[in-house]
Amino acid sequence: MFAVPFAGRGASLFYPWHAALPDWIELVAVQLPGREGRLAERPVTQLDEIIARLLAEIRPRLDKPYALFGHSMGALVCFELARRLCELGAPPPVALVLSGREAPMNPRSHHLLHTLSDAAFVDEMQARFDGIPKVVLEQPELLALLLPTLRGDIEAIETYEYRPGPKLPMPFFLYGGEKDWQSTPARLDGWHTLTAGPSPLRMFPGGHFYIQTDWRAVVSSLVQDFSTLA
Fold first, then answer.
1. Closest Cα partner for 190 from 105, 122, 116, 77?
2. For the chain, what are the domain ranges?
3. Strands 172-177, 67-71: pairing kind
4. Angle at CA 57, nearest 5°, toward 54 and 59?
5. Which of 12, 72, 99, 117 is catalytic?
6. b/e string for 181-215 if b means 16 or more Cβ within 10 A?
7. Which residues of the chain have pLDDT under 70?
8. Strand 67-71 vs strand 95-99: parallel, antiparallel, or unpaired?
9. Cα distance between residue 190 and residue 215, in whole Å
10. CATH assignment of 2-108+161-225?
11. Are 100 and 177 in contact (CB under 8 A)?
């Protein structure tokens, strides 16, 4: 299972999952440029470039059945990555797990965050998602270090344009937080139209970042859902 984190976050989000997953699920946590061990690299600000880079890394490793998991921005990345793999005739994933992200064709706000000043950008990110940890907000130097990556990710999301295409052949497992305005059942509903397979929905206690606060429940659900693919 290739796992892609949310905007501004690195692969360490998934490190606790390794010990909780059974041996038959191998977790590969994706580390995008501009964070953690790749902090010195330029953040990528276009989703198409993220997909192109991931294709180069992932395609040589598709010698066994695999799934894609993504949360928020990561869900969008996984969806477009799966589309591109299918277009190229590569082995498709056996499933997509799309977490905390509304369907890509849904109308979006015209109030763009990535064009704001740093102070306004931080204020809006906190108002919408409350996603920047307090310890980061309290340390201006640390915030300044991490801000370009978060801003770059938000730019990639906000400049993304959904293009209609064929339904994907694999099932979608849709995950959302019960208190997350971005992943209400109504906002997740559009994903059903993008797959030719089933697309069951699971809702978890918590808000947008429920995969951090209740990650064990997420891992347990992944095991149950992947067990149905055999």
1. 105
2. 2-108+161-225
3. unpaired
4. 95
5. 72
6. ebbeeebbeebeebbeeebeebbbebbbbbbeebb
7. 109-110, 230
8. parallel
9. 25
10. 3.40.50.1820
11. yes
With a CB cutoff of 8 Å and minimum separation 6, the contacts of 115 are none
pLDDT given at position 206? 92
The DSSP call for residue 28 is E
99 catalytically annotated: no
Three-class HEC string of 144-171: HHHHHHHHHHHHHHHCCCCCCCCCECCC
How far is Cα 71 from Cα 3, in angstroms, rounded to an integer? 8
Residues 6+ apart with CB under 8 A from 150: 7, 8, 125, 132
Contact 97, 67 (CB under 8 A): yes
Q: How far separated are the first and last CA of the chain, in Å rounded?
A: 15
Find out whether 2 and 28 touch, Cβ atoms under 8 Å. Answer: yes
CA-closest candidate to residue 32, choices 13, 55, 58, 4: 4
Crossing angle between the packed helical segments 73-87 and 47-58, to the nearest 10 degrees: 60
0.90 cut: is pTM over it?
Answer: yes
Place of tokens 């959904």: 162
Distance of CA 184 to the CA centre of its chain: 16
Q: How many CB atoms lie within 10 A of CB 58?
A: 18
Distance (Å, whole) CA 81 – CA 15: 22
Q: Which two tokens stand for residue 55?
A: 């294709």
Cβ atoms 177, 201 nearer than 8 A: no
